[in-house]
Amino acid sequence: MIKLLIALTLLVLVGCAQNAQPLRGPVQLDQVNVVNLSNQTLTSVKIEVLSTRSKIVCKQVAPEGFCAFRFKERELRGETAQVDWQMGDQEWQVSIDASEVDISSDWYRVSLDLNLTADGKAKIIAVESN
């Protein structure tokens, strides 16, 4: 009887251990994609993180195309960036806040898609990286 209780206890503990989730540290960022959701070419696209003055620049992004920047992973912090771009004669400028990005609680590494639209809107979407 005691052996049976020990065996059942071990079985329960092993089952619980298999479902345990590893502790996740800060989310890591390894890529930024500038995505053109319009039917016109975007030019002079610049993303600047205001606190660090770090910049990403795309000279041109084709209609429904994208420009990708891959880099050594770094901690994703909720910082504000300014985004500037041109579409034809129109110039756009918006501020975006990385702290407003929805990220699944079980993701460790992400890339960010910055979607730019024909009406001057910018939206950041997190995508899990492998």
Which descriptors apply to this entry?
single chain, 130 residues, mainly beta, Immunoglobulin-like, four-stranded mixed beta sheet, four-stranded antiparallel beta sheet, 1 helix, globular, disordered N terminus
Written account of the structure:
By secondary structure, this protein is mainly β. It has a single domain, classed as Immunoglobulin-like, CATH 2.60.40. It has 1 helix and 8 strands, in the order αββββββββ. The strands form 2 sheets. A 4-stranded mixed sheet has the order 4-1-7-8, with no helix packed on it. The protein has a 4-stranded antiparallel sheet with strand order 3-2-5-6, with no helix packed on it. Strand 7 and strand 8 form a beta hairpin. The N terminus is likely disordered.
Question: Care to give the gist of this entry?
Answer:
It is built from one helix and eight strands. It is mainly β.
Radius of gyration: 22 Å
Mean pLDDT: 85
Low-confidence stretches: 3-14, 16-21
Query: What CATH architecture do you see?
Result: Sandwich
Strand element count:
8
Name the helix and strand elements from N-terminus to C-terminus, one letter apiece.
HEEEEEEEE
Shape estimate: globular
In angstroms, what separates the terminal alpha carbons? 48 Å
**Percent helix range:** 10-25%
CATH topology: Immunoglobulin-like
Describe how the helices and strands are arranged.
Elements: H1 2-19, E1 28-36, E2 42-49, E3 55-61, E4 66-75, E5 80-87, E6 90-97, E7 109-116, E8 122-128
Parallel strand pairs: 1-7
Antiparallel strand pairs: 1-4, 2-3, 2-5, 5-6, 7-8
